[in-house]
Every structure is written in C-alpha cells, then in structure tokens.
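Worked example 3. Consider a protein that binds iron/sulfur cluster.
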Amino acid sequence: MNPFRYERATNAANAVAEITQAPTGAFLGGGTNLVDLMKLGVAQPDLLVDVSRLPGPYNRIESLSDGGVRIGAAVRNSELAADRTIRTRYPMLAQALLAGASGQLRNLATTGGNLLQRTRCVYFQDISKPCNKRVPGSGCPAREGYHRTLAILGTSEECIATHPSDMAVALVALDAVVRVLGPNGEHTIPLVNFHRLPGNEPQHDTVLKHGELITGIDLPPLPFASLSHYRKVRDRASYAFALVSVAAALAIVDGVVQDVRIALGGVAPAPWRAWKAEAELRGKPATEEMFRRAADAELADARPLPGNAFKVPLARNTLVRTLLELTEEEQ
Ligand SMILES: Cc1cc2nc3c(=O)[nH]c(=O)nc-3n(C[C@H](O)[C@H](O)[C@H](O)COP(=O)(O)OP(=O)(O)OC[C@H]3O[C@@H](n4cnc5c(N)ncnc54)[C@H](O)[C@@H]3O)c2cc1C
Ligand code: SF4
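Given these inputs, the predicted complex is written out as structure tokens:
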C-alpha cells in the first residue's frame, strides 16, 4: 500500500477544502471498500480525510417538515436498518441494507460511502489485468472472459460492470435525493441521476466532482412505501452481492395498480429504475399476467452475454414474484 496522510474532519466545510486542494485525496467513510482498494493497489490516495465522525446532522436520521426523512451521510448502515421510521415507512430500504455485506461491515459502512462503493468486477480489482474503468483505453477483458455476475442493461462496448450497492437500489425506487457540499456551496442531485452509465467514459461512476462531499440523503414522504419489499437473489444466503435484486412499492385500489415504484439491482452499471415496467403497470389490474408484461417491457432492452443470459429470466421472475407478494399483502 502507498504511503498516505490521514486527517479526521471536524466539520464538513474543512473536509471539502482539504480534498479540493489535494488532487489525489479522498474522503474516508467506514473504509470498508476504499481501504480494500488501496490494499489491492486500485486506489492510491495520498490523503484520506475521515468524514465518518462528522457531528450533528451528518450523523443523524431526522424527520422533515414535508413528512420526508433526512439521513446524514455518516449514519452507519446498521443504524439506518434498525431505525424505527425506516423500518415502518420504508421497509424495502431496511431490507436492502440487511441484505448487504455482514453485520460487522454494516456497523462500519456509512450511507455516503455505500453509495460510492465501486464495482466488484474481478478485472477491475486486479491491477495485473486491463480494465477500461481502472485504466481508460486499456480494454475490457470481461466481455470475452468472466462476466457471469455482470450487467445486462445499460452497458457499453467499453464496460459491462454492475453497480454493487443494495441500499442504492431501494433509494432509487424511493426517489431519494442526494445532498452535496462542494467548494461552491450546497446542491442536490436526484439519486436516479447520480450514478452514470459507462458510455465511453466508464472511469466515472457518478456525476460527483472531486472535492464534493455527500452530506446526506433526503427521502420524500411516499406513504405507499410502507408496503414495499427488497428481494435479493445471490449465490449464497449471505455475504454475497446480488445476481439480481428488486426493490418495489405498490399501491393497489380495488384490484388496480394506482401507483408503483420499481428498481432493479445486479443487472446494470447503476441502480436501475424500472421506468418502463412502472408505466406499463399504472392503472392496470394487479395480476400476474400484467406483472409479467411489465417485466418483459423493462427487459426488452437487455443485451446479455453467454455467461449472464440467465439474468434475463431471473430478473423477470424475481420482479413478478416480488409484485405478487406485495399484492397478497395488500389484500
Ligand atoms: C466482503 C464484503 C461484502 C460486501 N457485500 C455487500 C453487499 O452484498 N451489498 C452491498 O450493498 N454492499 C456490500 N459490501 C459493501 C459495503 O457495504 C461497502 O463497502 C460500504 O457500504 C462502503 O461504505 P464505507 O463507508 O465503508 O465507504 P468507504 O470505503 O469509506 O468509501 C467508499 C467511497 O466513498 C467515498 N466517500 C465516503 N464517504 C463519502 C462522502 N460522505 N462523500 C463523498 N465521498 C465519500 C470514498 O472516498 C470512497 O471513494 C460488501 C463489502 C465487503 C468488504
Ligand atoms: S466490465 Fe468494466 S470494470 Fe469490468 S473489466 Fe470491463 S471495463 Fe473493467
């Protein structure tokens, strides 16, 4: 591991100023992804500014006057999953958090760091191999090599990596908004616009610029999210990333879908909001046939490779199963 300086931030503005002046510096959350990447030689920051113990709103879960909830960026994944408001009003978020990593990791991992964790594509993590995301222009061995866990939607010729976070999939379905503090002040970014598809610049995972700090995440009220689920399919029962996951909330009135939110994980380079499936479902009967039609609409653009073609039927069936479960609970 390269030598680096470590500083613990006592306020957000100072943290931003420090990183803005250090072109290869990085914020440190729980360190559960960044430190691993440093050990592997994938990340080589010369300065770490620890933002995991920022005080006040960065460390709190607060109710907002509009009925929504604000989650500080330094709130740990375990604390967020255990929060009573999150468990009752946004159950899919608590379920997504508990489906990720392990208890020990969740005790360390922060809300901000979780959103910015990097792909687990094996070539990205191996500095002896080419990888367009790690070294732009060096190639993508995953296309011809091991891609069983990689993406079927939103890919490009340059990169087919999947986004790894479970939490982000639930947050995208919930219309979450990311709060950012940069050298020029504060701004917000809808989470659905926060992660980038690879296109011809796979090295950029998000629209965040160097020096910009995530300070928190806002959840809108969304009353029908109290009936929501996160379903994750993986190779092992725990401690494994999603092959496919579905976050869904459903509002049914007299057997008809009044409103719906759906996002998919494990299938794309970003948490994938299923806009087409949602549009297909609104105003339609809440039946298995309609759920299958909606899943087919969303997956019509899938471009699988031989090793991950199984994800297309897996995503279809997981989405239908999740919606059926929600329908049964509603009745
Ligand atoms: C073995 C293992 C299994 C795992 N399994 C899963 C899983 O199944 N599902 C899942 O979702 N996750 C899983 N994880 C990932 C884990 O949840 C992430 O490592 C964790 O959420 C990252 O959070 P962190 O606070 O430790 O981030 P860090 O590692 O500290 O940081 C990650 C990135 O975020 C940046 N950063 C941190 N905080 C901020 C901020 N406030 N503003 C701007 N930038 C910031 C850092 O500079 C870095 O680039 C697993 C991890 C491991 C090691
Ligand atoms: S899929 Fe993306 S991350 Fe994986 S090797 Fe190709 S360019 Fe690198």
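Take a moment to read the result before moving on. Residues 174 and 222 are 8 Å apart (CA to CA). The chain is about 30% helix and 20% strand.
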